[in-house]
Amino acid sequence: xxGISQEAICARRTLEAQQLIVLYDDNGISIDGPTSIAxxxxxxxxxxxxxxxxxxxxxxxxxxxxxxxxxxxxxGKPSMIACKTTIGYGAPNKAGTAKAMARRSAPTN
Length: 109
Description:
Distance between the termini: 34 Å
Helix content: 25-40%
Largest sheet: 3 strands, parallel
Strand order of the largest sheet: 1-5-4
Number of helices: 4
Number of domains: 1
Radius of gyration: 16 Å
Strand content: 15-25%
Structural class: alpha/beta
């Protein structure tokens, strides 16, 4: 999701949006396997370096999103919240793997 996160950074500058919040699903999986095979960027640091209030939370606990951290609430900056999740959570044979991603086969005639 490198492209879309960069677009959020750029859009914020263009729109001068102060109350923008980006939720980043940090599940560590791509369709080809672990994201580490192609990306080693720390997205929280990347957004901080662009002037955003950024934090990593446990994305499996929804109340963490409803209660903003003191830094996020008072910063006056746009926010990026990286939500650490497990793709396919609860699926005993697919959780945490690329197998949890839906793949559609080509229609047969």
